[in-house]
Amino acid sequence: MEKHKGLAISQSQQKKVLDQLLMELHRFLLILDKETLSGNATVQKGLLSDLLQSYRASNGADEEYIYMNKVIVGGKDKNNKGVSFTGFLSKV
Fold first, then answer.
1. Which of 25, 40, 62, 71 is 20 to 30 Å from 47 by CA-CA measure?
2. 3-class DSSP state for residue 22?
3. Where does this protein reside within or beyond the cell (predicted)?
4. 66 has a pLDDT exceeding 90
5. Distance between CA atoms of 85 and 10, rounded to whole angstroms?
């Protein structure tokens, strides 16, 4: 058992917490898809998305959906930003 803030946490509890953390991260990434982000934030979001996807794949998660990233750098969009980012779930 591992100590966390003075409490003993079993491995099953750790897994539940990690699963919840990953689900909340996924939801947050979906929220960010609807936001206009700076170039740095877009890159960081992409890195987090890739890490989340890699983690799920490496754990043999039998996912029906996978998170996809699309970054467009170039021309100005309606908000005069040079970077556009969209993410979506794609059925495998």
1. 62
2. helix
3. Cytoplasm
4. no
5. 39
Task: Please say whether the dihedral angle defined by the alpha carbons of residues 89, 42, 32 and 63, taken in this order, is positive or negative.
Answer: positive
What is the mean pLDDT of the segment spanning 18-41? 93
Whole-angstrom distance, CA of residue 46 vs CA of residue 29: 9
Question: Distance of CA 3 to CAs 8, 9, 15, 21, 24, Å?
Answer: 5, 6, 14, 18, 23
* Whole-prediction pTM: 0.57
Domain around 36: 2-91
Task: Specify the 3-state DSSP secondary structure of 64.
Answer: coil
Read off the pLDDT band of 9 (50, 70, 90): confident
Which of the 8 DSSP states describes residue 35? S
